[in-house]
Amino acid sequence: MKKVFAILKSKKDRNKDYDCILAFSGGRDSSYLLYYLVKVLNLKVLAYSVDNGFIPEQTKLNMKNATNILNVKLVIENHDYLEKCLKHHILAWIHRPTPAMIGVLCTGCRLGMDIRILNFAKKNKIPIVISGGNPFEGGSYKFNIMKITNNKKNYALYYILGYLLQIIRNPRWIMKPTCLITQIKEYYYHYFRAIKMEKKLSILRISPYYSYIRWKENEIISTIKTKLNWKNHPAIESTWRGDCDVSLLKSYLYKKTLGFNDKDDSLSTLIRDNQITREEALERLKKEEISKKVIEETLEKLRLKLRLNYLNFKTLYEMLE
What we know:
Blueprint: H1 2-10, E1 20-23, H2 28-40, E2 45-51, H3 57-70, E3 73-78, H4 81-95, H5 109-123, E4 128-130, H6 140-146, H7 155-169, H8 177-201, E5 204-206, H9 208-211, H10 217-227, H11 245-258, H12 262-272, H13 278-287, H14 292-306, H15 310-319
Parallel strand pairs: 1-2, 1-4, 2-3, 4-5
Helix pairs in contact: 2-3, 2-10, 5-8, 6-7, 11-14
């Protein structure tokens, strides 16, 4: 993290109250990062989060507990990108279900964070933006099932062509202009615009788990539970992917349509990293599987919030049987 301290030393016109801003979701990775930045590196951190409208109460409580215990300011801004599009995208998916398009269900969430946090950093003269992504999260298969070929060259092109093929097969995805624009903006801002903004604003954006901090699951979970009073989603055994109702639904859909999801992918990575054994992974898959009851409750919440009528709800529910 020498680069971080070098920037802090060189920036003369920066905010003296905060060294960095952390993209804080209340999940286990960002919670541990908050602890590490404050207690290990002694940095002055501002925790920044966005509420997409589907954050569980336990996640909100985790965020409050962590920031109170560490005496860190928490800023939460609301956005409705996801809420405006989710109903349309669920109905489009029901019309012609395909694993490749499950990821589109959460369109708007990433857009809500990417640009807002950079604008917030600019406005408040905070030179460093930190996020909690890590190489053990799993999920690379989502890009591969969208691509039209496994060719590693021209990766972005084949991904876009794969997406266009999905649209041709099911044009309903683009029949609501607001949602189509949100899809395009999210892709553009995440992969292109945000990078340009970083350079223009001279903001350093880093994901420490990829370069500076060794990601050790047991240490991370133990630390946040004992030091920050962090608790996982009350209805699931896993400490992972319980910080958003839509994320739970997506995980369940991947499992139903593909036979595996991010959890399987992540556990495989942990095996290869010698953090767990294959036997432990298989046991955890059984123990930490998202139950049908949790999905029933999640669907009911989504139905009420999105005003999905009974027939829409019944169709989606039957697909999950």
